[in-house]
Specification:
single chain, alpha/beta, Rossmann fold, seven-stranded parallel beta sheet, six-stranded parallel beta sheet
């Protein structure tokens, strides 16, 4: 009998608990005990990679009583804990150079592992200038090269263990891999990083099936993105204060215009992975003065939205699933990655994207366009979210955990 152990960084634990809250709730109702184990002190060079490994945030989420947070101070404590418990690892720590140390530990301890990728989001590459060698080296070598080539290659030398099952809601990407000459061959022969790939419905579709939130049209909901977030700073450094100020000035004008034209209040939803101190800074800056600012309730407000605006966040998939009106936004004050990324979801889902600086529109024509665009969402939903009608994807996962791994 095995116990589930979800290995993840505690640096943004509040974000993880919020994004995965339904998933953890399902697990807690079906298994006696679940561990969430901190990987921050189990990686190579944690201070370089995380910066603030000793400053984990206070937990703002209520966790089911049978889910336990485990915070090993070093690999010895992790080995001791794993030795006392028959663990099945749920891999949420990736394949970068820094996480290789965890892969070696899992191999040493002969632990089975699975991966759950049921969020239905779309990955976005980053562009980093060669004039910034340390950032270039970190992203393209220590992360991207290891993720795509080096870490998977170590499997062939028997130095790290394959993932047993990769549960995914990304049908399009799985079909693309099957059609590829090389990846298709490796997939068929079970020689990829994961031995087996199973298609499941996404988290967003699961929520829709068991939705207890009434779908309304009360608000204009803006899904904001950090202009100087951790990952943005990693790729291009800190954006100039005057550019941040100008960006929010025009954004505020645009959102206020939408609010006046459609007689709906604006609610700004902040990404759950943004730390509380950064949220406080944003509120104190008054960049979004006059708007209600919310964190950890994004989906609830999307379900109550008249229309949703966003830059590049995966949270917009909840709006697509329920066919909400969506506007993708960008400004010339954003960096090259932010501007490129702002094209991804509009292109994949099929909603309008516009530059909000001094933008003019006709009320009736804009709504007519947004309403028409909702009919384009079906392809995205079918390729990334719903593969089996009226089936809860997490139940598929739980069934395998019980039958194949005898998890209790």
């Amino acid at each position: 009998m095995k116990s589930l152990a979800f290995l993840t960084s505690f640096y943004n634990l509040n974000g993880t608990l919020d994004i995965r809250k339904d998933y953890f709730n399902y697990l807690s109702k079906n298994f006696k005990k679940i561990y969430i184990i901190n990987t921050d002190r189990l990686i190579y060079f944690p201070k370089f990679f995380l910066g603030e490994t000793k400053k984990n945030e206070k937990i703002y989420h209520k966790i089911p009583s049978n889910i336990y947070l485990i915070n090993p101070r070093n690999q010895t404590e992790f080995i001791e804990f794993a030795g006392k418990n028959n663990l099945l690892i749920i891999n949420n720590f990736g394949k970068s150079f820094f996480s290789l140390k965890i892969h070696f530990l899992i191999k040493k301890l002969n632990l089975k592992q699975i991966h759950v990728d049921n969020l239905g989001g779309i990955g976005m590459p980053a562009y980093i200038e060669l004039t910034k060698p340390l950032r270039f080296l970190n992203y393209h070598i220590f992360q991207n090269l290891f993720k795509k080539i080096i870490t998977p290659s170590l499997i062939f030398f028997g130095l790290i263990s394959r993932i047993d099952i990769h549960f995914t809601s990304k049908k399009r990407e799985l079909e693309s891999a099957k059609k590829s000459f090389v990846r298709g061959f490796l997939l068929k022969k079970k020689l990829l990083f994961s031995k087996e790939y199973r298609l499941v419905n996404s988290r967003s579709y699961d929520v829709l099936l068991e939705n207890k939130t009434k779908i309304e049209e009360k608000y204009i909901v803006h899904l904001d993105a950090e202009m100087n977030g951790r990952h943005e700073i990693e790729t291009r450094g800190i954006l100039k204060a005057k550019d941040v100020k100008a960006h929010y000035y025009h954004l505020r004008l645009f959102l206020n215009k939408l609010s006046r034209d459609y007689s709906k209040p604006v609610v700004v939803c902040i990404h759950p992975r943004i730390r509380k101190k950064e949220v406080k800074k944003l509120i104190k800056s008054k960049f979004l003065k006059g708007f209600k600012i919310i964190q950890y309730k994004t989906r609830d407000y999307i379900y109550k939205s008249f229309l949703v605006t966003n830059f590049d966040t995966s949270a917009v998939v909840d709006a697509a699933i329920i066919k909400k009106r969506i506007i993708g936004l960008w400004s010339r004050y954003m960096d090259i990655n932010q501007i490129k990324h702002s094209k991804t979801y509009p292109n994949q889902i099929g909603y309008l994207r516009l530059n909000f600086e001094n933008h003019t529109y006709k009320k009736k024509e804009l709504i007519k366009t947004l309403n028409k665009n909702t009919s384009k969402y079906d392809s995205f939903i079918n390729n990334y979210h719903c593969h089996k009608k009226n089936i809860n994807g997490v139940y598929d996962i739980i069934s395998v955990l019980k039958k194949r791994y005898k998890c209790i």
